[in-house]
Design goal:
single chain; alpha+beta; BirA Bifunctional Protein, domain 2; 2 domains; seven-stranded mixed sheet; three-stranded antiparallel sheet; binds 3,4-dihydroxyphenylalanine
Amino acid sequence: MNELDSMVDSATAAFAGAATPADLENAKALFLGKTGRVTELMKGMAALPVEEKKTRGAAINLAKQAIEAALNARRQALADAELQAQLHAEALDVTLPGRTRGQGGLHPIALAWERVESIFNSMGFDVADGPEIENDWFNFTALNNPPNHPARSMQDTFYVDMNDEQGQPYCLRTHTSPMQIRYAVAHVKKHAAAAVAGTPPETMPEIRVIAPGRTYRVDSDATHSPMFHQFEGLWIGENVNFKDLKVTFLNFCKAFFETGDLTLRFRPSYFPFTEPSAEIDIAFNSGPLAGRWLEVAGSGQVHPTVVRNMGLDPEKYIGFAFGSGIDRLAMLRYGVNDLRLFFENDVRFLSQFQ
Ligand code: DAH
C-alpha cells in the first residue's frame, strides 16, 4: 500500500473513532488543516520537477478527495445518530393510555348530606345554614336547657375561651338545634317587616326548615367523632302535629334508604326543648339489617318556652322538631361499621362511593 493510500486509511480510521462532531473537527485538522498531512504534502511538491508535479499533484488530490468524502460521510453519520438519539429520547407512544388526574368525587358524608337536603327540599322544607361557633344562649338557654343541665358540662362541650358582647361564653355547637331559634327568629322578623311595609299576609307562613351542618362534642370511638354532622328539622304552624312528624320522617327514611320496606316507631325520651319527646327508631323489614331497631333521630313537640324564644305565641303556634346524625345515616346506608373510616381520607375507601 502506498503512502497516500495509508494516509486515506488512517484518516478514515481517525474519523470513525470520532464520537462527537467536535472530535471529528479535531481529526479533520490533522489531515486537512493548515498544518495537516495533506497540506504538508502539497507544500512538499514545490521542490519537484514539473513532470512529477503533475502526477504527484493528481495523486494527492485524489487522496484529498477520498479523505473529504470520508469526512463528509462521518459527519452525516454523526448527525444521523444525534437525530436518532433525540427522536428516541422524545419518543411519544400515542397508543399509550393517557395520564389523567382521576375524576375525584364527593365524600360519602357529603353524598348523604346532599340526599338529606334534596329529599326534604322536595317535601317543601327550606335549607338553612348557621354558625359552628355558637353562644350559650342559642346552643343551650334558648332551647330551654337549664344552666346545670349535664349537656352543658365541660366533658361534653368544647368551650371557646371567649365571650360575646353580652358576656355569653362561646362554644362549638353541640347540636344543630340552635338553628331552630336562629331560623325561626329570622322568619318571624321577616314576617313582621312585611306587616310593617303594609303587605301583611293573612297568617304567618309556616316554618318548615332543615339545617344540616357540623357539630362538636368531646367524644371519640368507633361510633363517635369529636366532629360529626347533624341535621335539624323544624316545622311550626298553627295546626301541626305528631302525625305530620311521623309521615314526614317515614317518607324521608324511605327516600333516603330507597326502600318502602321499613317500619318507624317513637320511643319516649327526654329533651329539654321538646315536650313530649321521642327517639325515632326504624327497622328494615328485609336486607342485612332486617328486624333490628335502629335509632335514627331525636324528636318531639317543640316546648312552649322554645316557641316563645322564637318570638311566637305558644298558645297559637305549635310544631315539631327533630335532630338526626348524617354520619350515622351514611353508615347505615353504605354498610360502614366504623365511623372513623369517614375521616381517615383513605382513597381506597372513599373511591368505593363514586
Ligand atoms: N339536639 C339533640 C341531640 O343532639 C337531637 C334532637 C332531639 C333534636 C330532639 C331535636 C329534637 O330537634 O326535637 O341529641
